[in-house]
Amino acid sequence: MKVFIYHRIDSSSPNDMDRELMNCHLSCMKKAAECHGHTVVGMFHDFANGLSLERPGLGFLLDAVDGRSAEGVVVKDFSRIGRDGFTAEQIQRRLRSAGCRVFVEGDFRRKGCD
Hints:
Blueprint: E1 2-9, H1 16-35, E2 39-47, H2 56-66, E3 72-75, H3 85-97, E4 101-104, H4 105-110
Parallel strand pairs: 1-2, 1-3, 3-4
């Protein structure tokens, strides 16, 4: 299955440690997705508060999903999509309406890939 990866770190002014952490998380999610036979066709990220929908990386992800170039999105956990239930559900609903499943990285590890 073709998948996108999305990750968000809550930081409005990221430092070197934030950027290193972001790269590490993206790399781990890519490895986990590929271990389960998925093909990663794009990675998107934001350094932003999860309460806001004004996130460039999220916007690019949603545009890409609307283009139907992937069937899934991998996230570290659901809180990376949105910090409150309404925001997270709104985004997940849009992903589902575009035919995308949402995968949580931890599910891959529990199923045999570290």
